[in-house]
Task: structure prediction
Amino acid sequence: MTTRAWLALPDGRPDPALTRRLRAAHEALVTLGGPPPRDQVRTVVWDSWRRSLGSGVDPDGGAPPVDLLDGDLLTYRAAHPLSPVLPVIRRLLVEDAEADQMIVAVTDAAGRMLWVEGDRRLRSRAEGVNFVEGARWSEEVAGTNAPGTALAVDHAVQIYGSEHYRRPVQNWSCSAAPVHHPVTGVLLGAIDVTGGDHVASPQVLTLVRATVAAVESELRWLHREELAGGRPVPPNPRPVPRLDVLGRERARLRLPAGPVELSLRHSELLLLLAEAAVTGHGRTAEELAAECHAGDAAAVTVRAELSRLRRLVGAHLVASRPYRLLGPLDTDLDQVRRLLGRGAVGPALERYPGAVLPRSLAPGVVVARQRVAALLRQAVLTSRRPELLLRYGTLPEAQDDVAVWQTCLEWLPPGSPRRPAVTAHLHRLRRAPRGPLRVH
Result:
C-alpha cells in the first residue's frame, strides 16, 4: 500500500459526507455481509472490518475486557521492555497531550493498555468504553481501532470516527504505530494517540511514527548498555491465582496449572478466607462456621470441608491454625471494588456480570454480596451517565429498580431513541403490584 492508504484524512479535514458513506458501508457489512461500493472504505479498514466480523466482535456489544488490574498490572508493566523508555514517550507526546486534547496510550503486543495518560477530561470520558490501563484492545476483541489494527497488520495506521468497527467508539479517532525491538525485531507493543477528529490528521501520525523511531533508538542504546554491563533481563511475573465469584452459582479458581471448579461450600470458604486476607487476619474453624452457616454448625464440619479444600487446591494456598491464605489470591469481587474506589464506574460495571454467589445463604457471603451491590448501585446512580444506567439496568438486581430507571430517563437526551423503551418500562414498574420494600 502507498503511504496515503494508511492515512484516514489525507487532506486533514473531516467530511460529514465521508461519515455517512462509512456508516452506510458498515451497516451493509454487519447486516448483509456484502462488500461496499468501490472507494467507499479504505482497504485497510475494510479488511479489518472483515477480520472483526470473523472474530465475532459485536458492533454494538460491551466494552473490551480489563485483563490486568492493580498489583498484576504494576508487576507486568515494571517487567515490560517498554517500561524503561516511557520517559521518551512522555517527553515527545504526553507533555503536550492535554493542551492538544489527546490521550496517549502504550500497549503490549497483545493489545493490552499498559499506560494511558494525557488529557484528564478525555480520559474520564474514555473510561466509559474501557479505554483504560489493563484493558485489552486487540482487534479480535475490540474490533477495528488504531492500536489493535496497527498490531494486527504490523504497520502505522489511522482510524477515523466511523471507521471503527464498534459503534460505541465511533466518536473517537486514533493514530497508532507498532514498536519493535531494534535488535531482535520482536513486536513489543504499540503507541497510540486518541482524541477527536484532529487526531486523524497526517501530522499526528507523523508525530507517532517519530516517537516510535525515538523509542526504538533508545531501546537499541539500552540493549548495548545491558550487554556492556551484563545486567540480567527482568523475569516474567508469576501469575496470581484468581477466584471468580460474580454471577456464578459456584466459584472458579484460576491456578497456573489450570482452572478448578469448586463446590458451593468450597466456594464460600475460599471467598471468606480471601475476604479475611484483606484485613491481614486468619479465621478459626468456629469463626468460619459462623460465617458459613446461617444456623448453628459444628466447627468439626468446617474443618473437614477445609481439609478437602486444601487437598483440592494445594496446601501451598490455604494454611491452618488459623485458617488463612498463604499467598496472594485475587478475586473478581475485589477487582470491582478497586475500580469503584478509583471512580472507574464503567470498567467496574463491565467486570460485574452479576451478584456474588447468588445461591449462597452463608451470612459472610450475603454481607459481601450486599455491600458490593450497594456500592455499584450508588456509583451508577451518581454517575448520571445514561449509557451506564442502561447497562446496569440489564442486571437481574436492577431490572425492577424504579430509582435506576427514573434516573436513566432524567438524563437521557430528549432525542434519544432509547427514551420510549425506558419510559414504557418505568410505567410498567409503577403499575406493578408493590412487593416488599427494597433495602440497599
About this structure: The first helix runs from residue 16 to 32. The mean pLDDT is 86.
